[in-house]
Amino acid sequence: MEIRHNWTAQEVQALFDKPFMDLLFDAQQVHREYHPANQVQVSTLLSIKTGACPEDCKYCPQSARYRTDVEKERLMEVERVLEAAEKAKASGATRFCMGAAWKNPKQRDMPYLLGMIQGVKGLGLETCMTLGMLDAEQAKTLSEAGLDYYNHNLDTSPEFYGNIITTRTYQERLDTLSNVRDAGMKVCSGGIIGLGESARDRAGLLVELANMPAHPESVPINMLVKVKGTPLENVDDVDPFDFVRIIAVARIMMPKSAVRLSAGREDMNEQMQTLCFMAGANSIFYGCKLLTTPNPDEDADMQLFKKLGINREAVSQKPDQVTEHDLLEQVAERVASRPQEGDLFYDASV
Question: Where is [2Fe-2S] cluster bound in this sequence (predicted)?
Answer without folding.
Answer: 97, 128, 188, 260
